[in-house]
Amino acid sequence: MWKTPFGERVLTGAEGRLFREALTYLVDYVEQCIEIEEECYVGVTAFDNLSNVQKLAMLEAVGLALLRPRIPCPEHTAVNEATIAAVLANLLTGIEMEVGRGRPDPRPDGDGQHEWLHFSWRDLVVAALGENGDEEIPDPTSTDMDEWRETVERIEEWILWDLDWDNDEAIEADRVARTLSGRSRRTYYGTPGPDPATIPVDAIRETFREMRLECRDESKGIKKVLPKDECE
Asked: I need a labelling partner for 160 at 20 to 30 A (CA). Which of 59, 87, 166, 175 fits?
């Protein structure tokens, strides 16, 4: 569960599928960066400042909270809200790549095989908008990135209350207040990411494996085998 502007809720249906696909899309990127020993960046500072392993842990935490009804609502922090923003920022990157290719963005099937899931990010976004009764639904073939940027921002507003996680003045004011108090307070901005030494990476990867399988189940009937060179 997650505390959204519309109450405590779990993302289901088309909205849930969109977020799950976008979440695992970002996980794939983080894992690639771990493999080549580089940090990954999506343009969301509070998320980008985490180590790659911390990023995986935070992606699991927000993914479970937003997609699993049995998970209690966590307290909002700059780090966990920025993690949600990072998922949606990377979704926009997926749309940009899709528009640039002129066709849907291919994705690996999660098992290291050459069979790829083939879907359109824009179709997923449109389906989520329609299911939620949004009145401004773009044409799924639109290549207007300004339109898609505004659309993803609306989806973000369904989950996040505001942009406090990206408020530089508030971040600095909180840092100064905590420094002057001489105490390490767990504030919205002062709550750090998880301790890398205690992160159960193997268990987290198993969670994402299960999520990828859920994505595959939802995509049955639209799988397509692509030539290897098309998947690069």
From this structure: 175
pLDDT, tens only, 84-130: 999 999 999 999 999 988 766 555 554 544 344 567 899 999 999 99
- Beta strand 2-4 pairing with 115-118: unpaired
Count Cα atoms within 13 angstroms, Cβ side, for 180: 6
Q: Where are the domains of the chain?
A: 2-107+114-231
Pick the more confident residue, 153 or 168.
153
Say if CB 178 and CB 118 are below 8 A apart. Answer: no
pLDDT at 50 over 80: yes
Residue 166: count of CB within 10 angstroms of its CB: 15
Question: How far, in Å, CA of 141 to CA of 79, rounded?
Answer: 34
Residue among 146, 165, 152 at smallest CA distance from 122: 152
Residue matched to tokens 């994402």:
208
Look at residues 23, 11, 82, 13 and name the one whose alpha carbon lies nearest to residue 204.
23
